[in-house]
UniProtKB/TrEMBL annotation:
Pfam families the UniProt entry points to: MFS_1
Organism: Ancylostoma ceylanicum
Protein's name according to its UniProt entry: Transporter, major facilitator family protein
Keyword line: Membrane, Transmembrane, Transmembrane helix
Transmembrane annotation, as ranges: 38-58, 65-85, 97-118, 125-142, 162-180, 259-278, 284-305
Length: 367
């Protein structure tokens, strides 16, 4: 899904503040800002539409077959993106919609995996690893798509980026279907000792069977790495925070979750403010702010994500799917702000787009 955000740079003409799109003489892939917003909205709408159906399917059929189906939808829609982009704008939008549909299955699957496969002492670690898929995807996509010696700027062209990702997706989801089991007790490689550790303390549960950085002036080839490096750090801090949340025993779970939430939300919100008001000439400071934002948000695994699994328990897949629903709303709102504000793709306009991120909602306190 993140491939489009970068390949749009390679697909169209080189645009800047003084060289805007000529709507009458533009190339086949020179999309206007409104058309780019539609492509983003299609994903958000697809995810919103799919959230509740996937929740029902997970409850009825379990994660193994349902998540595999979502993966195949993602694989096929990614593979046909270059064809639809070339021949049909409505089909291109439909492919993006299907990518959004598959994205709607992610967080509910995380909830089910954590509940069924993680021991109570390893919830933080499982959540940090499983919720790192977006960072891992960016770490893979951006260098592969953006480096001049690889795909996007090579003789193979930008369509090969989609074909490669579709192939990788097919392999990974096939591996998921082959290895995963909805019930750990039914896995052929499961031992009695491992099963006892997973189920210890859980008790019996009755349930049914289961690209703004370009405006700073960086080259396309470098932009991929500037996006991938912060995501790599985010991934590292996610894992560290998950392990720390599980291993720190001198603080209560409530205190740990409050501390981790404060780091994730307050620190990132403060540096979003700093990032928005740094001039273009201070691009290195902007990158430093971005690094701090990515590192601090990695602490969410020890915050509200862990809170969801510990409080909701067997219903955590539903709670995490609602977090996904809220994220989808942001996917819908952000392109709308870009469409309404960023007419010339200037730094000042992007500052206005970022301004809602400076303020974080207050955290609810539970007694």
């Amino acid at each position: 899904m993140v491939v489009l955000n970068f390949t749009l740079i390679c697909m169209g003409s080189d645009l800047n503040d003084t060289n805007s799109i000529d709507l009458e003489n533009r190339g086949p892939y020179d999309y206007s800002q409104s058309e780019k917003s539609y492509l983003m909205w299609a994903v958000a709408i697809g995810t919103l539409v799919a959230a509740w159906p996937f929740h029902w399917c997970y409850q009825k059929y379990g994660a193994r077959s349902v998540f595999f189906t979502a993966g195949m939808i993602s694989t096929i829609s990614t593979a046909i993106m270059p064809i639809t982009a070339t021949y049909s704008w409505p089909a291109f939008l439909a492919a993006r919609f299907l990518q959004g549909v598959s994205f709607g299955a992610d967080f509910a699957a995380i909830g089910l995996i954590v509940v069924h496969w993680a021991s109570l002492k390893q919830h933080g670690l499982f959540i940090s690893l499983l919720s790192s898929f977006s960072q891992i995807s960016v770490m893979f996509t951006m260098p592969v798509a953006g480096e001049a010696s690889t795909l996007c700027e090579s003789s193979l062209g930008w369509p090969s980026v989609y074909y490669l990702h579709a192939a990788v997706s097919a392999v990974l989801f096939s591996a998921w279907f082959y290895y995963y089991r909805n019930n750990p007790a039914k896995h052929p490689a499961m031992t009695e000792i491992e099963l006892e550790k997973i189920q210890r303390g859980k008790g019996e549960v009755k349930e049914k069977e289961p690209t703004p950085i370009r405006v700073l002036g960086f080259r396309v080839a470098h932009t991929g790495y500037f996006v991938a490096i912060p995501r790599a750090l985010h991934l590292a801090f996610k894992i560290i925070s998950g392990l720390a949340s599980d291993r720190i025993h001198f603080l209560s779970e409530k205190t740990k979750m409050r501390i981790f939430n404060t780091i994730a939300l307050m620190v990132s919100g403060s540096f979003f403010c700093v990032l928005g008001f740094l001039p273009k000439e201070m691009a290195s400071y902007a990158l430093a702010s971005l690094l701090i934002i990515e590192c601090s948000t990695g602490f969410i695994c020890g915050g509200f994500y862990k809170c969801a699994t510990l409080v909701a328990r067997q219903h955590s897949h539903f709670v995490l799917s609602q977090i996904q629903f809220i994220k989808c709303l942001s996917l819908f709102i952000e392109p709308l702000l870009v469409f309404l504000i960023c007419k010339h793709n200037s730094l000042t306009e992007w500052r206005h787009v970022r301004s809602p991120q400076y303020v974080r909602p207050p955290q609810k306190r539970k007694n």
